[in-house]
Amino acid sequence: MRHFRYILSLILIFSLSGTISAAETADGMLKKAAASINGSTGLTASFTLDYGSQKISGTMKAAGKKFSLQTSSTSTWYDGKSMWTYNAKNAETTLMTPTPQEVAEANPLSLVNTYSANFTAAFAKSQTKGAKTIVLTPKSKKLGYQSVHVTIPDGSTFPSKLVVIPTSGQKMTVSITQVKNGQKLPDATFVYPKAKYPKAEIVDLR
């Protein structure tokens, strides 16, 4: 399921302390978020994805640009070069070398990392108490998004919620909870554990 990849990584979403001044700009907040994401040594988190009538929960682990995602039906691993996605329903694993766009579909936080090249940022007109919401508007329709809404809690440099609105299809909302940052995660965390799924068919799309 192509849309399902959006979850990935959202696990890169953590809550680090750091006071954000009232004069902070949307650009400034996103630059801090990108720096924190890229500089992470490792984190784990729980997430919930709302997509239409579907509500999916899972856990995610991440370190820098690497991530892994576990749910009851689908699991994904990305080691910075290759991406594996296991579908429990048909016991099939797809292997690919993703493009930057495909990485973004799997990990919405990569949109934060590259926002300055592809989006313009501005604070949302409507704000909720205790957080700031930033709206990313694409510079080109070719990106495939109407907008991306990033919510960052006050006193934090990481998003707690990401709403992705594609040009076609329904919006996806990812909420992050129970974040544990500063962990040491081995490289094997982000590589497909072939021995765990001995009967799975591997479809190599590279």
Helix-strand blueprint:
Layout lengths: L25 H13 L4 E9 L2 E10 L2 E6 L2 E5 L4 E5 L4 E5 L3 H7 L2 H5 L1 H4 E5 L7 E8 L6 E9 L7 E6 L5 E10 L19 E4 L2
Parallel strand pairs: 6-12
Antiparallel strand pairs: 1-2, 1-11, 2-3, 3-4, 4-5, 5-6, 7-8, 8-9, 9-10, 10-11
Structural overview:
By secondary structure, the chain is mainly beta. The protein has helices at residues 26-38, 100-106, 109-113, 115-118, and strands spanning 43-51, 54-63, 66-71, 74-78, 83-87, 92-96, 119-123, 131-138, 145-153, 161-166, 172-181, 201-204. Residues 6-22 have low confidence and may be disordered. A hairpin with a 4-residue loop joins strand 4 and strand 5. The chain has a 12-stranded mixed β-sheet with strand order 7-8-9-10-11-1-2-3-4-5-6-12.
Record keyword descriptors for this entry:
206 residues; 12-stranded mixed sheet; globular; 40% strand
Order of helices and strands: HEEEEEEHHHEEEEEE
Strand order of the largest sheet: 7-8-9-10-11-1-2-3-4-5-6-12
Count of individual helical segments: 4
Helix content: 10-25%
Taking the sheet with the most strands, its summary is: 12 strands, mixed
**Mean pLDDT, as a whole number?**
83
Overall, the morphology is globular
**How many β-strand stretches?**
12
Strand portion: 35-45%
Structural class: mainly beta
Oligomer: single chain
CA radius of gyration: 17 Å
Distance between the termini: 18 Å
- What ranges have pLDDT less than 50 throughout 5 or more consecutive residues? 6-22
